[in-house]
Every structure is written in C-alpha cells, then in structure tokens.
Request: fold
Amino acid sequence: MVSAQTASTRWLVRIIPLILGGCAGFATYVLVKRICIDFFLHTRHQSGAATAILVLYFLFLLLMLVTYFRVLVVIQHNPGVTPLGQKAIQLREADKKRKRRSQGTETDLEAGERYESCPDSNPDSPGLERFYSKDVFMCNTDGRPFWCSSCCNWKVDRAHHCSELERCVKKMDHFCPWVGGVIGETSFKFFIQFTFYTAVYCLIVIIAAAICLAQRIQSGAGTDGVVIAIIALSAFFGLFTFTMACTSMRYACMNLTNVDYVKSKRVVHQLAIRVPRGTTKGPNYGVITYPLPKPGNGPGVHAPEESARDQLATRTFAIIKTEMGENPWDLGPYRNWKSIMGDSWIDWFLPFKHSPCASFENNESFYEMGPLYQQLRERFSLPSLSSEEEKETRELKKQLHSDGTDSTPS
Ligand SMILES: [Zn+2]
Reply:
C-alpha cells in the first residue's frame, strides 16, 4: 500500500513539471502572439496596452519561475530532515542490499514501515543531550522527548514523520506533488512566494485575455477559442494557487503548519521546562532529571564516582501540559510572519534568504518560544533557576565551548 502510493507519487513528481512547463509555454504563446501582437498591436494598434501586459506578464513569469526553482532546489538539497538513528541506518542499508540482490538495481527507502523500534532505553542514548541541554523541549508523559519508531531517533520539537520521504521533517507542512517533495521549515517561505506569484501571474493572464475577448466581441470579431481556453486554464491554476497562498500565509501568521493546523484546536502540548536542580514533583506536574540514571542507581540517584562536571550538567525539568489549543510558539502574527518570511520586507518578496526560524535553535529552545512559555511557568508556579545555577550553566557552556574536553571545573 505504502509502496504503491510512493511509486505513484514518484511518477507524479516526474510528470508534473512537464505539465506545468507545457501550460506556461502555451500561456506565453497565447498571450504574446495571439493577444499582444495579433490583437492589441496589429488589430487595435494599442501599443501601450500591449507593452504594459508584456512587462507585467514577463515580470511575474520570472518571479514564478525563480521561486519554483528555489523550492525545487531546497527540497532536493536541504529538505529539513532530521538525522536517522543508527539502527534505522543499518536496517535501511540492509534492506537496500537485499532489494538490489533480489530485483537488480531497483532501490527503495520504504523499508522504514516494516520495522518498529521502541524508544532507546539507554540513559546515554545518542542525541538525548541535545534536548536536555535546552531549557524547554516537547516531551512525552515520561519526560523524554518523542521517539520516531521509523527513523529510530528522538524527534526534535515540531518535527513530523513524512511517510513519502520516510524521514522526520522539521515543521513539516505537507507533501506537495506539484514541486515533488515535502514543504517544511526550509521551503515554506519559498512555497508561499511561489503560490502568491503564480496566483498574480494567472490573474494577469485572465485580465489580459478577458479585455481581448471583450473588445473582440464589441468590435464584432467574435470569440476566440484559444483565448477562452487560456482563461479557463488560468482560472483553474489561479484559484488553486490563490487558495494555497492564502492558507499558507494564514498559517505563517499563526505559527502553525498544515500538519499542526489539523489538530490545533484540540492539541495539548506536553513540555519539559527546566527548574532548579533537585526540584521535586509538584501538585500538578511531574519532574525528570537528566542525564537519566544508569540502571542500578535508584531514580534520580547518580553514581558516586561522577565528576563535578557531571553534577553541573545535571538538569531537572518539570513536565507540564498546556491547555487544549494553546500554541507555545505563537509570537503574535507579525513576529510569526517574520520568523518565516524574514525581517525585512524585501526578504518577504525575494526568494534568496532562508527563514530565520530555520536557523533559530539556541541554548534555550529549538524554536523561539512565545509569551505562553512564561505564562506556563507562572501557571504551574515553577520555581525559577537560582542565579547560582544559571551562572554555573553559563560557565560550563563557556568551558565546554573553549576546550571541548571533559575536564572538571575547579
Ligand atoms: Zn521519522
């Protein structure tokens, strides 16, 4: 089932650029030759109208093509997937080899569906530190991050497993056959620009063709089937891309993806929020301490031989839940928009710079947290970190940065 779906998607992905190219080529022929040259220039002698239409047409054709190729390049070379776990790499490698042996050269990456891996129970599980070195991250009821059983790895905040790609994609929006890949964190901005420019491009074609048609009818020249066809084609693509552009811009202003939006009204986020070391369970929250205790040591008890560095690296988190429908990453519409489209309005229109949110990750969180984060701390009366612990953390980070070794701070 998955295999068939992916095969048909692959087929679509190859054929769709040809269809789109054909449509744009046909529209260019009709608009330039039939409408501008034959009708406005030769029949009506309206060189001003012909020039205006041509300038606008080619400007938006160029913007549409540039943003389309920008999306294509990004989803091919930087789709925003998260790393696979060691087990997934081995299993997929083995599956590829097995496939090559049995079916010649055909390779496939759909093996992921056939195994299910449980969350890594190793307290030193690779990748776990990336989560607990932050002050807040999305977590499960047990306080550990979410686990992708197909990628065999911890899921970073806001990542979603894409079955077409067989990978977790950061801020996955949707799988788009029109561009042959997953729209996510790295491509969402360019996708918005592409759908917006395509909608404007279609509108220009519709307006030019409609004026031409109206003047033909007025002058008694009758209708032109090709011009009617181009209006119908542009209306179809125009309506489609206009809807996509509006929906995507709305999600951008809400700091939601298509995937988030589907469940945004009833979703309850669970977050691990850092509290002072040794904080105990509260009336309405549980706690978890990292690094996770090794087997044999009781819960939260760490081996006596651990260094001062390990103790410094020990971090306690409160496990809390948001109310239904709350979005911890909502920064307000304008800042949400800028986190995707860029800080300057020039970036909003040009497809060069990447979204600021794609490179945001810092010591505090994977994505910039909205005001809800502070409200949650107050709502659950979470104790704030002592200035001493904050200072220790800062120094530890500085030291780890400067020498990159395991040395114990004196
Ligand atoms: Zn995954």
